[in-house]
Amino acid sequence: MKILTSWLREYVPGVRVTDRALADDLTLRGIAVEGVFDLGPNGSLFEMDITTNRVDAMNHYGIAREAAIIYGLKLAPLAATLNDLSSRLKSLRSEDAVEGPAFPVSIEEPRLCGRFTARVLRDVKIQPSTGIVVERFRLLEQKPISNAVDATNYCTLAIGQPTHVFDLDKLEGGIIVRRARKGEKLLTLDGIERILDPEDLVVADEKKAVGLAGVIGGWDTMITADTKNVLVEAAWFDQVTVRRSSKRHLVHTDASHRFERGADFNAPPVASALVSRILLEAGGSQVGDLTDVVISEAEARSAKRDAIAFSLGEVRRILGVTEDKEGITAATAETILTGLGCCLEKSADEAYSVTLPSWRLDLEREIDVIEEIARVYGYNRFQNTLPAFAGSVVELPHAEQETTLRRTLLALGWNEAVFSTFCAATDAALFAPQPASAVAIGNPLSEEAGMLRPSLVPGMLSMLALNLNRDVEDATLFEIGTVFSGSPERVAESPSLAIGATGRAFDQKQVTFYDLKGTVEKLLEKFSARSAYFDNLLLPAWLHPGRSARAVVDGLTTAHFGQLHPAEAERRKLRQTVFVGEIYLDRLYKQPLRQPIARELSRYQPVRRDFSLLFPDTIPWATIEEALKGLDIAELRSFAPKEILRDVKSVPTGHFSLLLGTVFQSQDRTLREEELQEFSQKVIAAMQSIGSRLRS
Amino acid sequence: MPEHESGDSIPHLSGYREAELDQAFAAISREVEASSAALATPEAVEAFRLQWLGRKQGRLKAISDAWLKSAPVEAKKLIGQRFNTLKAEIEQRLEHAEASTGSSALDSEAIDITLPGTRRKLGAEHPLIRTQNELIAIFARMGYSVGIGPEVETDYYNFESLNFPPGHPARDTQDTLVVSGQERKPLRDRLLMRTHTSPVQIHTMEEQPPPIRIVIPGKVHRNDAADATHSPIFHQLEGLCVDTNITFADLKGTLDHAMKELFGSSVRTRFFPSFFPFTEPSADVQISCPFCGGSGCRKCKYSGWIELLGCGMVDPSVFGFVQQKQPAYDPKKISGFAFGMGIDRIAMMKYGIGDVSLMYSGDLRFLEQFA
Fold first, then answer.
1. pTM of structure
2. Chain B residues with CB-CB distance to A385 below 8 A
3. B246: distance to nearest CA of chain A, Å?
4. Strand order across the beta sheet in which A351-355 lies
5. Number of neighbouring beta carbons within 10 Å of residue B70
6. How far apart are CA A279 and CA A277, in angstroms?
7. CB distance B281–A370 less than 8 Å?
8. C-alpha span between B214 and B197 (Å, rounded)
C-alpha cells in the first residue's frame, strides 16, 4: 500500500519531523514503512507493509492516527477534513438535500450485512476527475477512471471504507441484501460471468443481483459516460462471508481485502458523504435523505462492544521491566489508550474499564490492550533481562543416537545431504517398504513431488544422478530424514538413513558393495545389539539381487544396501554403477548405544599364522567364519581373509584361494610352539571339514 | 687401562673436593671446545665423535674409567655427575655440527616436501545441520531442552490451536500443502504438511506442565514458488519458555543473548511490533549487520540491520487451547514467550550461501566446501 506524506500530514497538522524520521517512528511502532521515495515538493511516498490485523491502518487517515499518538498531536476530525475537498458543498446535511423519498433498502441477511447506507445523487456529470483527486492519483500511480469511480477509490485510500456507485437508472426497484439463488449469474466489473453460490451474499435490486457483496460490483449497473443518476452504497459486511466469496470466486479486491479483515462499523455514513461530495463537485444534487439501515446485533459486535477490564498490574506481569525507572505509569497508559480511540473509566486503583474503538476490531481482550501499550511505548525501551529457571533439561530420546550416526558417517567420509520430502508416484510405488502404503499430496508442488517419500532412496538416487550430470564422478552422500507411510486417515512418520556412493569415492578406489557393508557394520557396532547378521533374503526390487544384502539386528530387518539394480539404473539413466542403502532408524533406535568397556590387555606376545587354502566357489566366507568360530580355541584372538584369488592361472576353475590370517594370543602365558602346532592343525581340520584343501 | 697417544694422556686430578673437580672438568671442557672448532665436514664430525665418545677409543670413557677407578667412594657420585654434564655438552656440540654439515646418509632419503599432502576425505557437515546444532547448543546452555514433532500435522495443531481460526486471513500468509483425501474430514482433523514448527509448542505443553524451556528444530513446508531465497521446503527453530514469571523483557534478553552468541558480542538487536496470531505482543527482531557492524553494506541492503526472526508472548488463547488437556496453563497465573527463526536464512548468512536450493540439492561441489 502506498501513502502520500503530504496527504497524511493534512490529517495531523503539526508533525515537525522529516518524512524519513516519520517513517522510522511509524516502523518502530509496527506500522512498517518498507520504502521512502522522494516526491520533491510533494513530500514523499511511503511503501507500507501493514500486518493483516491492522486493517485500520491501511489508509491515510488510519496512519495519521498513529502519527498523532506518536507525537502527542491532535488528529483532525474527519468531517472537517472533508470540507477542504469541496468548494461547492460545505457539508452534506439533510437540509442541503432536495426533497424526495428515502431510497428503499432491505437487509434479508442481518447476520451477514450489519449496515447498509444508500444515497441518491441526481443529475450528476460523469467526467474525468479534477483537482486534488487526480493530483493525488498521479502521485500514487492510481489509474483515474471517472469522477464517480475515482471518488470511491479516493475514499478507500483516505479512510479505508470501500464504497460502490450504481447507475441508478439501471436498478429495478430498491436494494435487497440477500443470499444468491442457486445458479444465479452475475457479470462482474472485471467482465467475468460468475455463477453464484447460495453461500454468497449479494447486493440485489428487486429483479437481479447487482453486486457480490463487499467483493465486486456488477457490470450491468456500472457507471458509464451516459449515467445521469447515481446510488452510492457504503455498507458493512461480515468478514467471513466476504472472505469466502472472494476465495470461492478467486477475486481479491481492495474492498474484499478490507472487509475480510474487519471494517469500521461507523464509517459508512462518513464514506458515503465523502464519495458524494467528490461526485457532486461536477454538478448534481442529493435527493432525499441518506438511507442508513443498522442491524443492532452487528453494531453490538463492533461499534458498541462491551467494555473490557484492564489493569496496570497485568501490564507489568506480562511486559516486565523498562529501561526507564518509572516504567509504564498510569498517565502513560491513559495517554496511549485515549490516543488510540479508547474510552477509559477508572474502576479501581490502576484498573480501568476500557471501551474499544469501532475501527479496531482486532482489539478484544486485555492482552490486546497491553500489546498496544507496549507497541506505542516502544519495544526497545524494555530492558533485556534473562529469566530465572526452575525445571530440568529433558533429553530428546534419540538425539544421542542420531548424533553418533552422523559423527560416524562424517568420520568415514560420507557427506551429509538434505533432500525433498516428496517424490514421484512411480518412485513411491517402487521404493515403499510396504506396498500401497505411500501417501499422496492433495496439491503437490509438481508432478514429481506428488507423494510423501516412503523411503529416502529415490531422493538419494536423484542426488547421485545430479552429481553425475555435473561431472562429479566420485560421490558419497548420506541423508537422515523422515519417511512416511499410511493412508489419508493416518500418516506414520519414521526416521530413516540413506547412504549412496559411486565412483572412486574412498581412497581413490572404486566403491564396492564392501564399502557400504563396512559402513553399515561400523554403524551397527555403535549400538549394543545382541545379534546382528547379514543375508540376501527378501531383498527389495531396487537392489541388484546378487550384490546386495540386508542387515538383521535382533531379529528385525534393519537395513538394505548394495548395488542399485541395473534395470533401475538404466531407467534413471545413471552413467555409472551406484551403491545405495537405507537403514531403518526406527528399528535401529530400539538398540541403546554401546557403552565401550575396556578389556584387560594381554602382556604376552601375539603370534600370527597364515593359511593358504583352496575352496570351491560354492563356499561363502560366512561358512568359513562359522567353522572358525566353532573352534574351541580360546587363544584364537582374531582371523580375517587377507587375500582372495580366483580366475587366475594358479587357481583351478570353480575354486578360489584364500590366504587366511589368524592371530593367537593368551591372556596368561606365552604360547609354546607345540600349542601353536595344535591350533594350526585344528584350523586346518576345520577348513577341510567344509571342503577346503591346504595349498602348497 | 687402555693406552693413549701422548696428546691424549689422562689429565691429572689434583683432589676430590668439588672446587678441584670443577677445575679439572673445566680443563677438559676447554679441550672439547678446542677440538670442535673446525667441524666443517661430515668426516670431521665423525672423527670428533670417535675421539670423544667412541666406545673403545673414546677419550671421555678413558678419563672417566681412570678417574673413577682411583676415586674414593664418596667422590664417585660427584665425578659421575660431572661426566654426565660433560657428555651432554659434547653431544650438543655434535648435534650442532651435524645439523650444519648435513648428513649424507639422510640426504639420499630426502623427499619433495612441497608436494601436496595426502588429504583423506572427511565427510562434510551440512551447513543447515551445522547451523541447527549451533543454535541448539546456544539454547541448551540457557537450559533449553530439544524437542521434535511430526512433519504431517492436523489443521488443529498447525492452525486452530495457534489461534488461526478457520477462514482467518492470517492463514493466507502460509500457503499450505495438504495430504490428499482429507475433504470428508472435519476441518480440524485434516492432515497437512506443517507450515511452521509452532505446532510442537502445543504438543509440548499438552504433554508437559509448566515450567517449559524447549527448542524445536525441524523441516517445514509451504506451497510457495522457489527462488534464490525461498524454498518450499525449509527449516525452522522454534523456541518456547513458559513459567510463572516470564515477561516481554525476558524475551528480549533471551534473544539478544542468543544473537550475541551466534554472531558475536558486538551484535545488537532491536524489536519491532509485528503480528502473529499465536503471540501477543508480537515482534520482529532485527540484528545489527554482523558483516559491516551496522554502517551499511550489500548484505544488509545498506540499512545496517538484518531482520532475522519473529517472536512474542504466548497468546492467552493458545494457553486456552492447551488447557483443554493441561489445566496448569492458566493464562492468569503463567506467562511465556515463543520465537521462531529460519535456519536456512541464518545458514545462508553465516556461510555466504546465495541460493537456498543448493542446500537441498545434494550437489557435492557445494557440500564439500563444508568438510
1. 0.83
2. 247, 249-250, 252-253
3. 7
4. A308-311, A351-355, A343-348
5. 10
6. 5
7. yes
8. 12
DSSP-based three-state secondary structure for A643: strand
Torsion angle of alpha carbons B219, B224, B230, B232, nearest 10°? 30
Q: Domains in chain A, please, with CATH?
A: 2-76 (3.30.56.10), 94-301 (3.50.40.10), 308-380 (3.30.56.10), 399-588 (3.30.930.10), 607-694 (3.30.70.380)
Rounded CA-CA distance A605/A664 in Å is 9
| Per-residue pLDDT reduced to its tens digit, B241-297 | 999 989 999 999 999 999 999 999 999 999 999 999 999 999 999 999 999 988 889
Q: End-to-end CA distance of chain A, in Å? A: 92
B271 and A488: CB-CB below 8 Å? no
Q: What is the DSSP string of A383-436?
A: --------S-----TTHHHHHHHHHHHHHTTPEE----SEE-HHHHHHH-SSTT
B-chain residues within 8 Å CB-CB of A375? 273, 281
Test B169 with A476 for CB contact under 8 angstroms. Answer: no
**Residues B93-129: pLDDT tens digits?**
888 877 777 656 677 788 888 888 888 889 999 999 9
Contact B269, B286 (CB under 8 A): yes
- Write phi, then psi, for A177 (nearest 5 degrees): -100, 115
* Residues A403, B217: Cα–Cα separation, whole Å: 14
CA A252/CA A261 separation, integer angstroms: 13
Contact A500, A520 (CB under 8 A): no
CA gap A510, A520 in Å, rounded: 18
Question: Residue B281, CB half-sphere, CA atoms under 13 Å: how many?
Answer: 30
Q: Nearest by CB to B150, from A382, A445, A493: name it.
A: A493
For β-strands A475-486 and A415-416, DSSP reports them as: parallel
**Residue A84: its pLDDT value, please?**
46
Chain A within 8 Å of B59 (Cβ-Cβ)? no
- Counting every residue written for chain B, the total comes to 371
CA distance A524 to A532: 8
Q: Which of A32, A393, A418 sits opposite B126 (nearest CB)?
A: A418
DSSP states of A16-51 as a string? -S-HHHHHHHHHHTT-EEEEEEE-GGG-EEEEEE--
Are the C-beta atoms of residues A229 and A167 closer than 8 Å to each other?
yes
Place of cell 539394480: A565
| B171 vs A: CB within 8 A | no
- Helix B18-35 × helix B73-101 angle, to 10°: 20
Q: Mutation target for A interface from B191, B285, B303, B330: give the one with most A CBs within 10 A.
A: B191
Over residues A572-580, mean pLDDT = 94
Beta bridge partners of A645: A657
Q: Tally the residues of chain A.
A: 696
- What's chain A's average pLDDT? 92
The angle subtended at Cα B335 by Cα B331 and Cα B338, nearest 5°, is 120
Q: Given CB atoms, is B233 within the 8 Å cutoff of chain A?
A: yes
Paired with A32 in beta bridges are A49
CB A113 within 8 A of CB A132: no
Angle between helices B73-101 and B59-70 (to 10 degrees): 170
Place of cell 571342503: A691
B250: contact with A, CB 8 A cutoff: yes
